[in-house]
Amino acid sequence: xxxxxxxxxxxxxxxxxxxxxxxxxxxxxxxxxxxxxxxxxxxxxxxxxxxxxxxxxxxxxxxxxxxxxxxxxxxxxxxxxxxxxxxxxxxxxxxxxxxxxxxxxxxxxxxxxxxxxxxxxxxxxxxxxxxxxxxxxxxxxxxxxxxxxxxxxxxxxxxxxxxxxxxxxxxxxxxxxxxxxxxxxxxxxxxxxxxxxxxxxxxxxxxxxxxxxxxxxxxxxxxxxxxxxxxxxxxxxxxxxxxxxxxxxxxxxxxxxxxxxxxxxxxxxxxxxxxxxxxxxxxxxxxxxxxxxxxxxxxxxxxxxxxxxxxxxxxxxxxxxxxxxxxxxxxxxxxxxxxxxxxxxxxxxxxxxxxxxxxxxxxxxx
Length: 366
Prior knowledge:
Blueprint: E1 2-6, H1 11-23, E2 27-31, E3 52-55, H2 62-72, E4 76-79, H3 86-91, H4 94-116, H5 120-125, E5 127-133, H6 158-177, E6 181-186, E7 188-190, H7 199-209, E8 213-216, E9 222-227, H8 228-241, E10 247-250, E11 255-257, H9 258-272, E12 292-295, H10 310-316, H11 324-337, H12 339-346, H13 349-365
Parallel strand pairs: 1-2, 1-4, 2-3, 4-5, 5-6, 6-10, 7-9, 8-12
Antiparallel strand pairs: 9-11
């Protein structure tokens, strides 16, 4: 099977591609615009594989997306391309509306046109898998409540509202046009290659540099943490074995308050990076925890998310392999072992080199 993955240079998309290339015989076409969060260095382990192809294309560019479909002839689409940072969506919603809503609409229309022209066997086998978030559900009131696939949508931020809109588009294209779609809604992902603006990598890198560890409000927001490789495995199961028209919630069964997550990271750094000048071993009485700084909460901040992932376990046999304790240890160790990757992201050199290479190719093509 050939799978077209949008946003394949992003955090979750690159994990999906690495999983497919390393664990299956399928081929992958990575379609990515390469915005700030797109990093081809996250795919260095698989980029030379003859089952991998890359197309630098904006999913909002209908003509280019139609060319990609015509050239690559995919058997399935896994749509992960999205603007995903809540704080950025509050500061400037425009990119979120364009990419998450208009981009999804454009991709649906290109996929529909392509699908309608397939022969009967390929048409029956085609899948359009839309990857979304649990944030479309808003937040939970009771401490025992869980998001199910039937939970009403109540998004709180421009980001989650744009993702909710894209979910509705996908369902409408199936109901109206018959496009064979599936949707997954996942909890908070973490793991290797996560862009350093997100909570867990930001805390790790700030702690190592002795910078403040900013936590919104009291840090009592609860999230269900899902190790990214567990998520990638679940997504592949859905696109290959999921039932058309169904929605599957994917969670890690790891509910933690943000302050608990940061405390865990600090303790792991005390163990795994004892030589750091900010650790207890260097005479700092509080160690890395002394860097914690509580800051004003952001507007519309949801208090608690928690996923009921029993449907995907029951129907497809998936459950997470990593506990939070094992996954966060692997994550902290990965960042300690890959500080050069982090540095290149932080100083922007991963983008500058890419832009320089693109300029050279343009000159050569003239």
